[in-house]
């Protein structure tokens, strides 16, 4: 599906030098693995987030941060935000962000830019988006080659989930043109999940992960079911209205108004002043993610006036409130779209440069329950740098598959292998809870089959014969409105109910397991006191089930089959 | 694979009277499932793909994976100790270390220059364990440490990168002889030569070394290959073959002499090696059908261009010639036509003149026939003169066609009145047309 179709060009698996690449619309990253740990590569300027910008001045090509600086002085020969144009037709591209850079045009049915890339005296030449991408990727791969000291031969590239087949093909051929074999294209959110799951301290468990990829020009949120280390995307949302540049715009507006108060000219009316304003606003935004105060200062912003002003984080959060709220709605919307509740979400992974902003993470903290981990620098000490997640994930995937033949990779990623049944309801056993029968999940809903799960369940204290009742289970959300006068329901945690009654109209929401249809019953006889029973549920690809139960450390046990529906 | 989750809540007690066949009762089936795509990412997916593609169950896959892992470890061990030890080799004396094959001593003769440091270390350790003199002493063979010294020497050399390069430089066992003429003709030309160059490539300072390719290689590939090899940058040195330099305390002159000799010998050997490589390349390229093919293609291309050019020129020439001929023909035809026209017009003019003369005669004759309108009597000279004058006047006023018409009317008329009538009609017509003034030619009116 996503790898190099032409096997002739690929290097031998043993000779491959692989990297992971995130080719973003605003910034790109490259990463490699050393001893199964992913490291992001800094380019020759020392940048780990390399702006996806190419600029031409006097016949020289600049890329990354250097090129981005040319947006002020030489915008017409600077190409930025072109990744999303790759593989697209002119009529379907959004040129908004290129307003202050080289403008996209339609030339012979392809999106192109006109830049003077051959020196000042030469006429401008027209460069198509694929060609620009090839040139940029070549620089990116070149930086990796310089860093590693070995020619990079292959890469895994992460792309948004809504990349069309055409865009994928365009990207693969662009990489091929830049002399790098694409082993696989993986989707951005899954790369981020993989980056977290590949940490040595991470353990494989069943969880629902929301990946909020908040980038420069777009935000993509995905709900991923992680089941025994296998990932299934349940829902995605893509937004082009709430992203990093919109925070920049809010700051631009704020600073422009401040400037007008002092000097009575609008720095936004002059393209060059606006570019300066934009560059410094972005820098200020980044500074405010780290500190609570930031200095905004531009020399000769407009009409020769220097401008310097301090802004604190609270002001910034007020200025950008609309955008921040947009992020909240986006995340809530996609959870709903997946047919889930925020209580079902076990982890929120925040990635993309905008995720550094503490306000966004704190807002998410408010949306999701206490039990949900919000993995962002502001809310978690173990969070990985959000900007580096996807490149790391891609690098890890690259190291996993680098020994495979291209054909093997193709076969493994074939839809026949990747499309499998996912069970709709959780499977579990009934246990004795404080208020009667309780459902204990063994295999969560949305688990891809074939799957196998094993649990150890304690037998009753006194031992003896036990019943293992395998049932399906569902969840529902129980909403409890606190009634200050009646407290009998929540006697066991009084602190909580006190807290609740302080805040008016605050309702508590709980996820309650409900026992569904019974699947099987089994008996284990003569279990020793204090012993445990091991139950293994094995669901085959055709949804037939094998249940095995035995006493831990004991012999024999019970085994039974359920027919496929 | 699956880790075991632990639950805190206990299982219920088996109710009284519960029975099931083999203690198991099947009650239902799974309710439905949704087809979704799993993301082909991560180690667990790879395991899933492996199971799916080979149709293995979890436990089968676990077993096969475990077996494969175990086998891998064994393979590595096997590879290094499986090389049989030549009894002759075991008899070697340590002082002959210059002639010994260090890789063979360590049992690495199939890896040679490709052996990694790790492999050398492991191989050395194994050999040490096997041939340690203390072990032999235990078997009653004392003073038998010669082969052990050989092993140590081999390890010294192979673990020192500089010494190892010096040895690799002269390690003839790793060389691949160029194919003979006979072998070259057997059809394996590219395979045999690529082996040779692969072996030679070990001396390259720059990597990767381009491969020889095969019969279908592109022109760029072949050109890159030959360019690379004709500009080959080799690290090969020949220090290993140096004569032993005597100690300082013996004879300084002798020492310097030997050192000089060694330096010269190295230089000479290096030059010889370069010449050898060049010859190798010449031989390879001489029989290389690909070069011939590319040359032919290039020639064919050039020729095609030339032929096309010549053809175009010839065509242009012919076209020009044809054009010229056509123009000449056209000119001739025009001249002919002009001549004919001229003759025709001359004749017509003459005819017209003759006709006019004849008509004039008729006109004059008619007035004569009418006796100059003098009635019955003899016309006076003055009368004749005036009538003829009028006729001349009318003749001068009318053109040839009118003259012919008038002559036609007058011709054959003999009666004076009729003639007079015709004339008067003519005069009237001319007066009407404004050619004559009223009163002119009153004799004829």
Automatic annotation (TrEMBL), chain A:
Keywords: ATP-binding, Nucleotide-binding
InterPro entries with a match to the protein in the record: ATPase_NBD (IPR043129), Hsp_70_fam (IPR013126)
UniProt feature, compositional bias: Acidic residues: 489-507
Region of interest: Disordered: 475-510
Keyword tRNA processing part of the UniProt annotation: no
GO cellular component: cytosol; nucleus
GO terms assigned for molecular function: ATP binding; ATP-dependent protein folding chaperone
Stated name of the protein: Ribosome-associated complex subunit SSZ1
UniProtKB/TrEMBL annotation, chain B:
Record keywords: Chaperone, Cytoplasm
Biased composition (Acidic residues): 75-84
Domain J: 101-171
Keyword DNA damage: no
GO cellular component terms, semicolon-separated: cytosol
PROSITE patterns: DNAJ_1, DNAJ_2
Compositional bias segments (type: Basic residues): 254-269
Pfam families per record: DnaJ (PF00226), RAC_head (PF16717), ZUO1-like_ZHD (PF21884), Zuotin_N (PF26185)
Subcellular locations according to the entry: Cytoplasm
SUPFAM superfamilies: Chaperone J-domain
GO biological process, one term: 'de novo' cotranslational protein folding
The protein's name: J domain-containing protein
């Amino acid at each position: 599906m996503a790898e190099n179709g032409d096997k002739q060009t690929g290097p031998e698996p043993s000779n491959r030098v692989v990297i992971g690449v995130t080719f973003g619309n605003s910034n790109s990253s490259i990463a490699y693995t050393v001893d199964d740990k992913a490291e992001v590569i800094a380019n020759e300027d020392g940048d780990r987030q390399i702006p996806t910008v190419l600029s031409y001045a006097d016949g020289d090509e600049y890329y990354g941060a250097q090129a981005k600086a040319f947006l002020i002085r030489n915008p017409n020969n600077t190409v930025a935000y072109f990744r999303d144009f790759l593989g697209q037709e002119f009529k379907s591209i959004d040129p908004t962000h290129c307003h202050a850079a080289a403008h996209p045009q339609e030339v012979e049915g392809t999106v192109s830019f006109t830049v003077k890339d051959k020196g000042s005296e030469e006429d401008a030449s027209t460069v198509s988006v694929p060609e620009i991408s090839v040139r940029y990727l070549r620089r990116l791969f070149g930086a990796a080659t310089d860093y590693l000291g070995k020619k990079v031969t292959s890469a895994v590239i992460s792309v948004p989930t809504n990349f069309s087949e055409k865009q994928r093909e365009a990207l693969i051929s662009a990489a091929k043109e830049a002399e790098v074999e694409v082993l696989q294209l993986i989707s951005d959110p899954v790369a981020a999940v993989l980056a977290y799951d590949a940490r040595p301290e991470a353990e494989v468990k069943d969880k629902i992960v929301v990946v909020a990829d908040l980038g420069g020009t777009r935000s993509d949120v995905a709900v991923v079911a992680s089941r025994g280390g296998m990932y299934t995307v349940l829902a995605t949302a893509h937004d082009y209205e709430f992203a990093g540049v919109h925070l920049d715009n809010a700051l631009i507006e704020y600073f422009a108004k401040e400037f007008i108060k002092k000097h009575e000219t609008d720095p936004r009316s002059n393209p060059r002043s606006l570019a300066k304003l934009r560059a410094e606003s972005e820098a200020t935004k980044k500074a405010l993610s780290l500190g609570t105060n930031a200095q905004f200062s531009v020399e000769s912003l407009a009409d020769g006036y220097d401008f310097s002003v301090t802004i604190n984080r609270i002001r910034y959060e007020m200025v950008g409130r609309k955008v921040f709220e947009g992020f909240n709605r986006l995340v809530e919307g996609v959870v709903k779209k997946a047919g889930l509740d925020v209580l079902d979400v076990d982890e929120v992974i925040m990635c993309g440069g905008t995720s550094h902003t503490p306000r966004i993470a704190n807002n998410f903290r408010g949306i999701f329950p206490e039990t949900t981990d919000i993995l962002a620098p502001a809310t978690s000490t173990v969070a990985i740098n959000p900007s580096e997640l996807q490149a790391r994930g891609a690098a890890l995937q690259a190291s996993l598959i680098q020994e495979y033949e291209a054909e093997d990779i193709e076969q493994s990623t074939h839809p026949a292998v990747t499309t499998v049944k996912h069970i709709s309801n959780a499977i579990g056993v009934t246990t004795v809870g404080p208020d009667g029968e309780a459902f204990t999940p063994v295999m969560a809903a949305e688990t891809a089959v074939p799957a196998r799960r094993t649990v150890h369940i304690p037998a009753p204290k006194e031992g003896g014969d036990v019943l293992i009742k395998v049932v399906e289970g569902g969840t529902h959300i129980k909403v409890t409105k606190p009634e200050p006068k009646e407290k009998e329901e929540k006697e066991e945690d009084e602190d909580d109910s006190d807290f609740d009654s302080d805040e008016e109209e605050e309702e508590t929401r709980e996820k309650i397991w409900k026992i569904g249809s019974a699947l099987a019953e089994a008996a284990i006889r003569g279990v020793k006191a204090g012993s445990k029973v091991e139950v293994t549920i094995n669901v085959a690809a055709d949804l037939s089930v094998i249940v095995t139960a035995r006493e831990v450390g004991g012999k024999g046990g019970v085994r039974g089959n359920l027919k496929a529906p | 694979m699956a880790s075991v989750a632990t639950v805190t809540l206990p299982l219920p007690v088996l109710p009284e009277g519960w029975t099931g066949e083999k203690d198991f009762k099947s009650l239902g089936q799974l309710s439905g499932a949704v087809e979704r795509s799993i993301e082909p990412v991560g180690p667990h997916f790879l395991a899933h793909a492996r199971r799916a593609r080979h149709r293995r169950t979890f436990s089968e896959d676990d077993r096969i994976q475990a077996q494969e892992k175990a086998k891998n470890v064994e393979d590595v061990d096997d590879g290094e100790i499986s090389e049989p030890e030549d009894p002759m080799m075991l008899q070697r004396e340590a002082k002959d270390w210059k002639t010994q094959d260090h890789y063979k001593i360590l049992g690495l003769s199939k890896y040679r220059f490709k052996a990694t440091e790790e492999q050398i270390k492991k191989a050395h350790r194994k050999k040490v364990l096997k041939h340690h003199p203390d072990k032999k002493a235990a078997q009653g063979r004392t003073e038998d440490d010669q082969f052990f010294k050989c092993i140590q020497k081999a390890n010294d050399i192979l673990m020192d990168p500089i010494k190892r390069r010096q040895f690799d430089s002269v390690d003839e066992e790793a060389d691949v002889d160029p194919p003979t003429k006979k072998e070259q003709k057997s059809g394996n030309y590219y395979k045999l030569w690529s082996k040779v160059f692969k072996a030679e490539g070990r001396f390259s300072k720059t990597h990767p070394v381009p491969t020889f390719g095969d019969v279908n290689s592109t022109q760029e590939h072949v050109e890159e290959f030959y360019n690379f090899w004709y500009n080959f940058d080799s690290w090969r040195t020949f220090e290993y073959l140096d004569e032993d330099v005597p100690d300082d305390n013996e004879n300084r002159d002798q020492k310097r002499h030997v050192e000089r000799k060694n330096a010269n010998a190295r230089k000479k050997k290096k030059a010889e090696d370069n010449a050898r490589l060049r010859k190798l390349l010449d031989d390879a390229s001489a029989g290389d059908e690909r070069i011939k093919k590319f040359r032919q293609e290039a020639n064919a291309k050039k020729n095609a261009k030339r032929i096309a050019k010549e053809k175009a020129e010839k065509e242009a020439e012919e076209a020009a010639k044809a054009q010229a001929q056509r123009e000449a023909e056209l000119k001739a035809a025009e001249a002919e036509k002009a001549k004919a026209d001229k003759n025709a017009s001359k004749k017509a003019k003459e005819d017209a003149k003759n006709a006019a003369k004849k008509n004039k005669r008729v006109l004059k004759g008619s007035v004569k026939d009418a006796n100059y309108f003098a009635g019955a009597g003899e016309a006076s000279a003055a009368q004749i003169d005036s009538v003829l004058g009028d006729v001349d006047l009318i003749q001068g006023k009318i053109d040839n066609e009118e003259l012919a018409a008038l002559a036609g009317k007058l011709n054959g008329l003999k009666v004076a009145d009729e003639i007079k009538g015709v004339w008067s009609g003519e005069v009237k017509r001319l007066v009407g047309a404004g050619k004559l003034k009223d009163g002119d030619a009153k004799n004829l009116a």
